[in-house]
Structures are given as C-alpha cells and as structure tokens.
C-alpha cells in the first residue's frame, strides 16, 4: 500500500512548497500510461500512432486515441531554508501543440525507495515546451534523511478518449542533503525555524560519532527523541508555545560543543479590530485600528491599506495607523481593506467610508479671553479651515467650579469670537471650545481650554456684625465680631474693615478704626453714652454697605432665669416670647467651645417674625453644655436680653465622681459631704446622686437603701438623692466594729458616674467612747492630785508622817551633858520591848496593835495595800534597839511571796519610834489575804 | 582576502575619524591622576557583567549550566591578560583603542539582541575619549594627531568574529564575546591601577616626565605585537 497525504491550508497564508510556479514554455505534451503486461502492445501502438500523427495534424482538436507520455528530465533539488523538495521536469511531446489537462502522480520515499511516505496527484494544464515545477515541504528536516522521488503521468482531458492510462514511473531521483555537510561530529537541523504558536515542529540531529553519548535539551529540560536511522534521531514538538522573543532554545551536546536550533515561535496574528477612518482636512485620511496582541517576534507583521475603487494601496508605517492621501478627483466613497500579514497568516478587514461623513476637525487654537470686566468677557479663537467654503460649528462652554454654566454654538470659518455675559466679579472661569464639521456633524474635535478671572467689584452686602459688651468700672467695653463675607458677596479680596463709632450723645464725636483683613473682631472701649457703631468691608474697588450696632452706656437686664433644653440631631431647637412689638429682629448667641477659653462667639440673626429657630453647628459635641442667649433687636439697633437657655446636644453620663469627705464617724453612723462638686461643667444635667454602701458582713440594706448589683456581680445597697443641690448625706444604722465601703456618684439622664472608687470605713467599738469619757477625766483628776501633792508635799509629810525626833539630838541630852552626869544610861535592848507595831496602810488609818516577844513572829491581818502597794510599820521603843523585819504574804490566788524588810536602829535612850515607811510590796494592787510581819529586836 | 583587507582598512579609517571627531569636540584634562582615575573607574564600570552579559544571557535563555559552560571567551577575541601586562603604556593605550573599535562594532550588531536601554556603547566611546587624552598626555603634545591613539597597534587589528551560521551558534558566540569583553575590561582596569601604584612609588619625579621617559624606553615585545596569542585560552 502506498501512503497518501494531502496538505491542507485553512485560512492560512504561508508561502510553502506546495505552491506551484508554472512556467510556460513552447512545448505541449500528452501523457499516457503504459502498463507493463501490455508493453509489447504499447510499443506497437505507439509506433503506429506516431506514424499516423502527421496525417492527423489538421484534424479536429478532439483526439481519437491517447498517446502514453513519460515525464522526462526529472530534477530534484533541496531548499534547506524552507525544508522543501523542489521538482522540475518536462514531458516530451513533439507532435502536439494543444493544451492538455494532465495528472502527475508523485511518490516520495525516505531513507530507501521502498519506504514511500508521500503520494500526491498533481493536476495541471500542460502547454507545449513547458517546464513543470512542484514542491513538497517535509516536516522532517531534509538534512536528516535521504529522499527519493519518482512520478508518472496521465492525460486527464475530455478531448482525449478513454481509456486513460498512467505512464510508466520515472526512475527514482535521490535527494541527499547530507552530502553537503562538513565533518562536524554533530549536526542539529533545521538551522533556524520560524513557527506559529500551536503548531508542530520536528527537529533532528545527526551524530557522526556512533560512540558519542548525545543529550538533547529543550529549554534546559533533557528530552528523548525517536531514532530514525543509525545516526539520526528526531524530536517532535507538538503545540509549541511562545516563551520569549528571542526564541526557544533546543540543543544537543556530545563530547564537543553543543549544537542547537532556535525555534522562533510567533503568536497567532490577530485580526485588526475597530478599523475606522476619518479626515481632519479633507486632504488626508487617517485610518486607525487595534492590532491586537503582539506576535512576539522582532519581525513585526506588515499592514497594507487597499482601496478598491481607485485600486491603490499603501504600506502602513505604523501597526495601528495609516495615512491615505485624498486625490483631487473628488472621490467621496472609499472601500478600504486593511490587510495584516506575517509569515504565517493574512488577516483583513474592510470598511466603506464616505469622506464627508468622516470629518473630524483639528482642535481649534489661539483661544484667548479679552476685554474681561467684572461681569463680561469676550473670548476669541481660531480654527483650521476645511476646504474653501466649509464652515465649522464650534461649541463654546463656560465652566465655573468645574461645571458647565453656559454653552453657546457659533458658526466659524476662520476666527471665532463670543461675548460672555452675566459673569460674577472676581471669579475664575474656564472657557473651552471644540468644533465639528458643519455640513455633516460626525465628531467633535479635541477641546482646547483657557482660564480667566473676572475683575473685582465692591462688596455687595454688609458684613454680619455682633457685639459682646462687658462693663469694666462702669464703662462698657465692646468687642465687635463680624463674619467674613462670602465669595459671592465679597466680589474680590477683602483688604480691611472700617469701624466707625458714633457717640449719639455727642453727634460730632466720631471715631474711625481700620482693621486689616482677615481679622474678624476688634475691641472698643466706650464711656457711658449711647453709641452707634458702623462696620464696612473694603476690597480694592470700594466699601460694602454698612452694618450698624447700637450700644447703650448702661448694662441691661442680665437677671434672666436660665431655661433648659434638649438638643437633637439637627441642633438645638428653641423658641422665645417677644417682648416688644417693634422688634426688628432677634439674635441668638452662643459659644462654640464653651469648655475652652476664650469663647468663640457665634450668633445667628433672625427676622422680626421669627420666634423660634434651630441652632446648629458642626462644632457642637455631645456632653458639652452650651449656653444660649436670645436678644431682641430694637428699631434703634439696640439689643435686649430676652432669654437664657442651656442644653446639651446629647447628655452623657458623668465622667468623674465628686470628692467626698467623711466625718462624724460613730459606731452607728458617719456623714458624707461633697460640697465643692460643680454641676455646670458636667457632661449632662446632674439630676441627683447615688450613695452606694457595701457591707463586709453582707447585712441587709438599711432603710432608704435599695439592693442593687454592681457590674462585678457584687451586692450593694444604693440610696438615691434626687436633689442635685443636696451635697451631704448621713449614713445611719450601722453596726459597731464593722467594715463598710461607700461611694457617691452623680447621675444624669444618660446614666451615673463611674463605680470604681469605693472608700472603706470601719465603725468603732460601742463602749470605747464611754471609756474615753471616764478615763480622760480620771487621768486629768490624778494629774491634778499629783500636782497638788507635789505642791503640798511638805504639808502632807508633816501631817502624815512627821519626822521622828532623835533622842540624841534631844535638848534633854544637852542638858545632861551640861550637868556631866556620869550615869548616863543607855537603854538595854533587852529591856526594850516594842509595845506596838502599827501598820499604816489604810485611809482610815486603823492601827494593828501587836505585842510581840523577842524573836517571835507576830501575825496579824492587814487590809488592802495602798495605791502604790506600800505600807508603813512604826515601832515604838523606849530604848535603842535594832529591828529587823521580815514580811511575808499570801493572796487568794495562792500567789505568795516574802521580802526582807529593813534594818533600823533605835538607839535613843528613851522611847523611840522606828518608822519603816513606804515599804513596797511587789505585787499588783490587790488585797492579800494574809500579811505577816516578823520583827526581830536586837 | 584583498577585499577583506580593504574592509579592515576602511573600518579602521572610520573608527579613527569617529574618535577624532569626538576628541575634537571635547577637551582633554591635563591632570594625569585625574585622567587615570577616570579610566580606572570606567574600566571598573564596564567590567561588570551585570551591565551586558547577564541581561544578554537572561534575554536569550542561555542560563542553563550546559550553555553557561560553553558561553566562554574565544581565543583571539581580545588580548590576553599576559599580553596586556607586558605592553608599554603607549602600546597598551593603542591596544585598548583598537579593541574598543571592535567592541563598538559588535555592540552595534548586538543592539537588537540586548535589552533596552543599554549605555554600553556610550561607555565605550567615553572610555575611548579618555584613552586618547591619556595618550596625548603621555606624548606631551596638545595636538591630538600627535597622540592619535588609532595608529596601528602592536599587531594586527582584530577582526570582529565571523557571524555563525545558525541563530543558536550566534547566541553562544555573542555570549562568549561579551564574557571576553568584561574580562578584557577587568584586566585593563588592573593594568591601569598598576600605573597608579607605580606612580605612587616614584613620587619624587615629575609624573609627566617619568611617563614620557617610560613611554620612550618601553619597547613592545615582538610577541606582544601580535596582541593576542591566538589559539591560547584567556586567563
């Protein structure tokens, strides 16, 4: 079986090998096919026919018998660049001069003649002496394989009667491109390849060194091919994609340098879009289009413009625009075809274009304003003329603040001019112009524009003036405020304000102040007269109308009760009652930021018929108290205070609590006070206070308190004080020696203050105050007694324990000495028996008599000791004795003790008293049950 | 062969006229150190592969290790490092100038294969101007012709590489050429820095006189006259 392939090109323009170039020669050929089994017959038939040919020269064109003709001089050449086999042959037919339609069957084999890879029938009309050509493009580079070609023919003409037989095959012609290769070890084919994205490409390499290990890469990726022959490997790339403008690299590497091929991949040429033409001057047409995506190759596609009526065409210099010169033969209609073409494709689009209907004039130029006054301006411009008699329709637009405020259409041939009126002084405008072809409107030209500013005029309105009057030492000080004039009324830049102060009581007295802009206030000190003050604003042209304010030299009635109001989203709605029927108007004044000083005074003028208004300002904030004063303006421009109002745009909960003082703490109550808490500066109207009380013991809420839960879920007692002026509170019914926490917070309509600053208090003991009441006087009393005792100590000593007289110092002794009695007798101790022991320890001064014997203990009961645990033992003796004492005691508790007392010598020859005073017993001031005193006498 | 020689002569003439024209419009600095420093900086700038070679490799898709291995300087494209070090100053400048002419032609041919914009051509021209000024300074003449740097150098003027048959080979060839160009500029910079060091060591003598003396004494080596030892791989 023989392979049979057909190359088909759909919508593609490609100069491939399959396009035939026919050269006409002078030879005519008739081809007949000769069948091998009939060879002998054919030879005879041919000989016979050749013999008959001269006889049939004048016969009709319809031949009666076919003549077998074989193609001759078949020549096969290779075009490596296009990978084409080019065939050239002739058909020998010396006898016929007519044209015949013939079919040539061509066979192509690869590597060996028997390996037929292509079979194609090529039909054409053959003339006499014609050299025929046919080309075939190989998908495999021709250098990589030997190709063989042969052909045979058959006459396929209606004038030749059947049977139509194929001629003999020509001999195989060999096409071997490898012969021309050098002695390099490695070749890669094709050398370069230009392909369209999405197509298939076959690349091959020839290795001369069989032992060489060849590796091939496509863009750095190792790939493996298909072996075609001993030395030849092929690689087929399907659906190739665009990588870069400089091509996709394929290369192979053996022992030596790499060999490779660059596949230049072109993106598919797109059809031009939005193809249209227009003219600006009826002389040159400009056609534009969107070429679509770039093909990605350095070599750009070509664009050709073809006009079918005139048959002219031009090669465009740009890929999206082309100029076409309009001829003078007044051609109006044009049928343009734009052809985009690259190596692979040809794309075309067409339009039918009427020259008159496609006039797009050039933009006008030299647009200037002239004679610009405060309210008028004349603008002029020029246009490029179209033809000799055509006019342009121009549209003049006047723009103010970006908006078109005037629009005029003017017919213009060369110069345009228009007077713009009703302009505002000192205002910037933009004039802009565009034009269109008047005979047939199609498209406006580009716009040109020019800015200009009108001249200034005197301000058209008096400034809005208000005043603030304060009295210092009885003299009014007036601060005048005015609002800047709006741009509409200023009519230019305000340079200064004139303030004229007229004393109404002294008409000749005028005081003029000039305040430079942009100041908006000034201060004037007046005396106690009445004044009229005029304020005017001045720009470079002149003054504005005057604004008048009257000032009385005496303070007005400020004792107006302040009312309250609530703000809304729109502001503060307020109303008032007029006092006078002759009021010329009302003014409401307020401070925008009352919490910040100085006050930014604001005011609003209202007509005489208004008795209510809504004051709104962007400066109003929630939680800020605004104070409004409403004035009535008399016919003499004097302002009288009507009402005062205070309000919040929106009340907020208090942001902080008062500082509370606690006093009068007892075991059952304490007092809270917060006297210095200002209510005017709060974030809402203070409606009262909450007193929170928390008990550690969790006792029940007292009378007047209610149980509530705090945010931390703790239980608390709350007392509500609904009088904002009450700033003291007594917390009663508390438990002694108990811990409490309290908090005082104000509340407004929006809520209460923060509950985060509880203070602690602990009630004292119930009896402690009693003790205090007793102990303190006692201490005081003892202290007084001690002072008295100190002051009267000598008297007390004399009274309570006077000095015992010393017998030796007695006057009696001196008398004895004087008599020098040698029988002075000293009392013997043994003879001196104490007659009594007296324990002095009681206030009542009871004495315990004791008659003791020598060295015998004496037991006696004693009462309680004195305050300082002392007692006194007095020993009366008439002769000198030595007494040693010993005391022991015992208490009810079993506590007992003993103490050696003292030694004393009573050496008087007479009775004496040994006094042991203030013996201190080291135990508490309790009453001992027994107190034994032992005395020894020596 | 004769036609080739004619072509070479013509190219040389064009280059000379080109450089002369540039020089005639400019004014040379008479300060040796300033000029030397400028030449060093220009050489440093031009030796940087990121200015030409790297963009070229990226644009042409030659970044694979296999191709990088074969993107190498061909022997004979540029004078070798040894040869440049052995040249006298005058000969060195002459060689530089001659090579710059070759580079200019190659850059012109490479224009569409390089990313836009590249200042390489302007840099080469500026470098050539300064070489001319240095040659003029060394010869001690204010006449540009006296120090014309485009006089035949020590050896034949190198020809631009023959364009290879396929686009792929041309890519590799250009890549190797650019690599050689950067290598050549790096070596030139080193030689120029060597001038500065030697000058610093002999500070007692007048630099101009010393240079002139050196220029007169330095005699080109016969092997250097061939400029590049063709067939030897560059170091």
Automatic annotation (TrEMBL), chain A:
Cited Pfam families: fn3, LIF-R_Ig-like, LIFR_D2, LIFR_D4
Fibronectin type-III domain location: 363-457, 462-558, 654-766
Transmembrane segment boundaries: 770-791
SUPFAM superfamilies, alphabetized: Fibronectin type III
KW Glycoprotein (keyword) present: yes
Principal localisation: membrane
InterPro entries: FN3_dom, FN3_sf, Hematopoietin_rcpt_Gp130_CS, Ig-like_fold, LIF-R-like_Ig-like, LIFR_D2, Type1_Cytokine_Rcpt_Type2
Quaternary structure and interacting proteins, as annotated: Heterodimer composed of OSMR and IL6ST (type II OSM receptor). Heterodimer with IL31RA to form the IL31 receptor.
Name of the protein in question: Oncostatin-M-specific receptor subunit beta
Source organism of the structure: Bos mutus grunniens (Wild yak)
From TrEMBL, chain B:
Compositionally biased region (Basic residues): 201-219
GO molecular function, one term: cytokine activity
Pfam families noted in UniProt: LIF_OSM (PF01291)
Pro residues biased stretches: 151-164
GO BP: immune response; negative regulation of hormone secretion; oncostatin-M-mediated signaling pathway; positive regulation of cell population proliferation; positive regulation of inflammatory response; positive regulation of interleukin-17 production; positive regulation of MAPK cascade; positive regulation of phosphatidylinositol 3-kinase/protein kinase B signal transduction
Subcellular location: Secreted
Signal sequence residues: 1-26
GO cellular component terms, semicolon-separated: extracellular space
Region (Disordered), start-end ranges: 140-168, 195-235
InterPro entries: 4_helix_cytokine-like_core, Leukemia_IF/oncostatin, Leukemia_IF/oncostatin_CS, OSM
SUPFAM superfamilies assigned: 4-helical cytokines
Keyword field contains Signal: yes
Keywords, sorted A to Z: Cytokine, Disulfide bond, Secreted, Signal
Family: Belongs to the LIF/OSM family.
Name of this protein: Oncostatin M
Organism: Bos mutus grunniens
Organism ancestry: Eukaryota, Metazoa, Chordata, Craniata, Vertebrata
Gene: OSM
């Amino acid at each position: 079986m023989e392979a049979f392939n057909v190359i088909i090109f759909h919508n593609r323009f490609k100069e491939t090998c399959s396009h035939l170039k026919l050269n006409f020669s002078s030879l005519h050929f008739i081809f007949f096919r000769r069948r091998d089994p009939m060879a002998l017959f054919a030879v005879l038939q041919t000989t016979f026919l050749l013999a008959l040919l001269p006889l049939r020269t004048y016969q009709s064109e319809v031949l009666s018998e076919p003549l077998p003709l074989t193609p001759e001089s078949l020549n096969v050449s290779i075009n490596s660049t296009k990978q084409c086999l080019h065939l050239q042959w002739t058909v020998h037919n010396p006898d016929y001069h007519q044209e015949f339609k013939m079919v040539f069957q061509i066979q192509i084999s690869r590597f060996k003649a028997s390996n037929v890879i292509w079979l194609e029938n090529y039909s054409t009309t053959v003339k006499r002496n014609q050299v025929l050509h046919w080309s075939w493009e190989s998908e495999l580079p021709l250098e990589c394989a030997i190709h063989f070609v042969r052909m045979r023919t058959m006459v396929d003409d209606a004038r030749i009667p059947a049977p139509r037989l194929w001629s003999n095959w020509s001999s195989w012609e060999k096409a071997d491109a490898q012969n021309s290769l050098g002695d390099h070890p490695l070749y890669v084919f094709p050398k370069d390849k230009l392909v369209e994205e999405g197509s298939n490409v076959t690349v091959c390499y020839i290795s001369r060194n069989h032992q060489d290990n060849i590796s091939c890469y496509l863009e750095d990726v190792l790939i493996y091919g298909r072996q075609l022959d001993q030395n030849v490997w092929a690689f087929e790339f399907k659906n190739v994609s665009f990588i870069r403008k400089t091509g996709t690299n394929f290369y192979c590497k053996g022992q030596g340098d790499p060999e490779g091929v660059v596949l230049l991949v072109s993106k598919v040429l797109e059809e031009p879009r939005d193809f249209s033409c227009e003219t600006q001057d009826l002389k040159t047409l400009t056609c534009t289009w969107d070429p679509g995506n770039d093909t990605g190759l350095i070599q750009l596609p070509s664009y050709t413009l073809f006009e079918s009526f005139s048959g002219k065409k031009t090669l465009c210099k740009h890929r999206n625009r082309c100029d076409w010169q309009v001829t003078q033969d007044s051609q109006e209609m044009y049928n343009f075809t734009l052809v985009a073409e690259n190596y692979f494709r040809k794309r075309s689009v067409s339009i039918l274009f009427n020259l008159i209907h496609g006039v797009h004039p050039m933009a006008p130029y030299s647009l200037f304003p002239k004679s610009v006054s405060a309210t008028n301006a004349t603008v002029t411009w020029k246009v490029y003329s179209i033809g000799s008699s055509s006019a342009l329709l121009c549209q003049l637009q006047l723009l103010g603040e970006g908006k078109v405020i005037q629009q005029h259409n003017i017919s213009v041939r060369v110069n345009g001019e228009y007077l713009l009126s009703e302009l505002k002084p000192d205002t910037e405008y933009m004039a802009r112009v565009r034009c269109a072809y008047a005979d047939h409107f199609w498209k406006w030209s580009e716009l040109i524009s020019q800015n200009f500013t009108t001249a200034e005029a005197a301000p058209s309105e008096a400034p809005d003036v208000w005043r603030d009057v304060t009295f210092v030492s009885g003299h009014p000080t007036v601060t005048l405020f005015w609002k800047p004039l709006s741009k509409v009324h200023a009519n230019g830049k305000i340079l200064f304000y004139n303030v004229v102060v007229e004393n109404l009581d002294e008409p000749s007295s005028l005081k003029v102040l000039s305040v430079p802009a942009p100041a908006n206030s000034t201060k004037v000190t007046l005396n106690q007269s009445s004044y009229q003050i005029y304020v005017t604003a001045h720009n470079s042209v002149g003054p504005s109308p005057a604004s008048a304010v009257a000032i009385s030299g005496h303070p007005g009635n400020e004792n107006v009760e302040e009312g309250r109001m609530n703000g809304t989203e729109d502001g503060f709605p307020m109303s008032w009652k007029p006092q006078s029927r002759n009021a010329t108007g009302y003014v409401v004044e307020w401070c925008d930021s009352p919490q910040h000083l100085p006050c930014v005074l604001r005011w609003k003028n209202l007509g005489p018929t208004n008795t209510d208004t809504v004051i709104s300002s962007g400066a109003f904030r929630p939680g800020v108290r605004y104070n409004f004063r409403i004035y009535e303006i008399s016919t003499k421009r004097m302002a009288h205070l009507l009402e005062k109002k205070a309000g919040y745009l929106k009340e907020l909960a208090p942001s902080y609590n008062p500082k509370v003082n606690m006093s009068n703490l007892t075991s059952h109550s304490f007092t809270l006070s917060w006297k210095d808490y200002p209510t005017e500066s709060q974030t809402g109207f203070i409606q009262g206070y909450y007193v929170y009380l928390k008990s550690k013991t969790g006792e029940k809420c007292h009378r007047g308190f209610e149980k509530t839960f705090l945010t931390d879920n703790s239980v608390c007692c709350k007392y509500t004080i609904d009088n904002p002026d009450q700033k003291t509170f007594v917390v009663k019914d508390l438990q002694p020696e108990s811990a409490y926490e309290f908090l005082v917070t104000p509340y407004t309509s929006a809520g209460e203050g923060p509950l985060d600053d509880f203070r602690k208090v602990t009630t004292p003991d119930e009896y402690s105050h009693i003790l205090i009441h007793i102990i303190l006087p006692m201490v005081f009393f003892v202290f007084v007694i001690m002072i008295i005792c100190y002051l009267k100590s000598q008297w007390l000593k004399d009274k309570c324990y006077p000095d015992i007289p010393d017998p030796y110092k007695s006057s009696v002794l001196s008398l004895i000495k004087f008599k020098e009695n040698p029988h002075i007798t000293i009392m013997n101790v043994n003879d001196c028996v104490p007659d009594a022991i007296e324990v002095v320890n009681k206030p009542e001064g009871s004495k315990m008599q004791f008659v003791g014997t020598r060295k015998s203990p004496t037991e006696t009961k004693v009462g309680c000791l004195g305050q300082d645990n002392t007692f006194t033992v007095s020993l009366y003796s008439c002769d000198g004795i030595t007494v040693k004492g010993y005391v022991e005691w015992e208490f009810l508790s079993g506590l007992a003790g003993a103490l050696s007392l003292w030694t004393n010598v009573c050496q008087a020859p007479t009775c004496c008293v040994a006094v042991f005073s203030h013996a201190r017993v080291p135990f508490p001031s309790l009453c001992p049950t027994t107190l034994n005193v032992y005395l020894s006498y020596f | 062969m004769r036609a080739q020689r004619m072509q070479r002569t013509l190219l040389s003439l064009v280059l000379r006229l080109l450089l002369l024209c540039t020089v005639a419009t400019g004014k040379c600095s008479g300060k040796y150190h300033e000029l030397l420093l400028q030449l060093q900086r220009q050489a440093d700038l031009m030796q940087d592969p990121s200015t030409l070679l790297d963009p070229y490799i990226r644009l042409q898709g030659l970044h694979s290790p296999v191709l990088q291995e074969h993107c190498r300087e061909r022997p004979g494209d540029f004078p070798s490092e040894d040869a440049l070090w052995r040249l006298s100053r005058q000969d060195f400048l002459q060689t530089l100038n001659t090579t710059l002419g070759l580079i200019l032609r190659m850059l012109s041919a490479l224009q569409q294969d390089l990313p836009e914009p590249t200042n390489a051509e302007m840099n080469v021209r500026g470098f050539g101007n300064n070489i001319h000024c240095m040659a003029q300074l060394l010869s001690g003449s204010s006449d540009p012709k006296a120090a014309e740097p485009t006089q035949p150098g020590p050896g034949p003027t190198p020809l631009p590489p023959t364009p290879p048959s396929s686009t792929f080979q041309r890519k590799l060839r250009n890549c190797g050429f650019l690599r050689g160009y950067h290598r050549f500029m790096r070596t030139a910079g080193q030689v120029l820095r060597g001038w500065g060091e030697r000058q610093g060591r002999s500070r007692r003598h007048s630099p101009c006189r010393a240079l002139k003396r050196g220029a007169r004494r330095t005699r080109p080596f016969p092997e250097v006259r061939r400029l590049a030892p063709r067939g030897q791989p560059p170091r």
